[in-house]
């Protein structure tokens, strides 16, 4: 994370987060939140009083800040005051908001196919990138960061992972590595993209090419492809990941296997991401149906 043009207080917070192994994405999120708090306060954030914290939280409520954003900012404030300022008592004046539990949007298999076919060009870049999310269930950041060696393109046809049809996710969420499934069709598409432009380093380079492409570019591609395909559901790149999980569940894949493929620490998150596919719900036999059959058998026995 860039540290130039930073105040000593911000530099201290960044150093504290680095010491504790906080990831770059989380670091940037925390810094943005503290900047927002400082802008509201109108002075250095380390001078905030409990009354200032109360006023800021009331301000977020009055201005319609979503519960998820409120919670992200509260986490950042707790890190800032507890870790950088050494004022653990300030945490008593910060409250998390309860987020409404809604089911994530998921595309049908046909909708995923239509979106991938409508992925914007030129070339195969976006179709290949979106296919990784829908075909391997990667997170948005994971879709942007694969390296040439992770996917095993043309130059490494004999690589062991290629034989086993796996791809490597390096330092995913929680700074953990994992292997995910790689179908023959997806592998061939990725190889076709690699042959088209011969990227070096990053499989999907950004601008400049020494950097990976951004999640924002991917989300724009999803939005464009969705409109071109006539799909009206509200969705982002992450929706393809939800769809992957749902389709795996509908294909009778064990939920623990899906948990490993998605890189979840617990089954609760997996259950929410799969949102228990509609086909699975429809095909599940109701206890009422089972009771009705037993009752019919009882009536038949009594008549006999």
UniProtKB/TrEMBL annotation:
GO MF term set: DNA binding
Pfam families (alphabetical): Phage_int_SAM_4, Phage_integrase
Stretch forming the signal peptide: none
Domain of life: Bacteria
Residue ranges occupied by any Core-binding (CB) domain in the UniProt entry: 4-85
Keyword annotations from UniProtKB, A to Z: DNA integration, DNA recombination, DNA-binding
Tyr recombinase domain span: 102-286
Keyword Nucleus: no
GO terms for biological process, alphabetical: DNA integration; DNA recombination
Database matches in InterPro entries: CB, DNA_brk_join_enz, Integrase-like_cat_sf, Integrase_catalytic, Integrase_recombinase_N, Integrase_SAM-like_N, Tyrosine_recombinase_XerCD
SUPFAM superfamilies cross-referenced by the UniProt entry: DNA breaking-rejoining enzymes
Annotated family: Belongs to the 'phage' integrase family.
The protein's name: Integrase
Species of origin: Rhodobaculum claviforme
Lineage, highest ranks first: Bacteria, Pseudomonadati, Pseudomonadota, Alphaproteobacteria, Rhodobacterales
């Amino acid at each position: 994370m860039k540290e130039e043009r930073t105040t000593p207080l911000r530099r201290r917070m960044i150093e504290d987060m680095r010491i504790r192994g906080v990831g770059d994405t989380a670091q940037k999120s925390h810094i943005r939140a503290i900047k927002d708090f400082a802008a509201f306060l109108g002075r250095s954030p380390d001078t905030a009083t409990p009354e200032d914290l109360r006023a800021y939280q009331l301000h977020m409520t009055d201005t319609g800040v979503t519960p998820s954003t409120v919670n992200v900012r509260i986490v950042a404030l707790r890190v800032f005051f507890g870790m950088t300022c050494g004022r653990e008592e300030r945490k008593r004046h910060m409250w998390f908001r309860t987020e409404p539990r809604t089911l994530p949007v998921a595309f049908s298999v046909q909708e995923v196919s239509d979106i991938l076919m409508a992925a914007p060009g030129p070339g195969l870049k976006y179709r290949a990138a979106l296919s990784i999310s829908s075909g391997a269930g990667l997170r948005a950041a994971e879709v942007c960061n694969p390296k040439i060696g992770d996917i095993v393109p043309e130059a490494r046809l004999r690589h062991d992972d290629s034989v086993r049809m796996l791809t490597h996710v390096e330092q995913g969420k929680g700074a953990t590595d994992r292997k995910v499934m790689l179908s023959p069709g997806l592998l061939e598409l990725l190889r076709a993209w690699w042959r088209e432009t011969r990227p070096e380093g990053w499989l999907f380079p950004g601008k400049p090419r020494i950097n990976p492409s951004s999640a924002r570019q991917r989300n724009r591609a999803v939005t464009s492809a969705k409109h071109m395909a006539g799909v009206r559901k509200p969705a982002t790149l992450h929706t393809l990941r939800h769809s992957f999980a749902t389709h795996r569940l509908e294909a009778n894949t064990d939920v623990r296997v899906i948990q490993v493929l998605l890189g979840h620490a617990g089954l609760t998150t997996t259950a929410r991401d799969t949102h228990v596919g509609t086909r699975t719900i429809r095909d599940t036999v109701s206890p009422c149906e089972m009771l009705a059959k037993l009752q019919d058998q009882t009536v038949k026995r009594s008549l006999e």
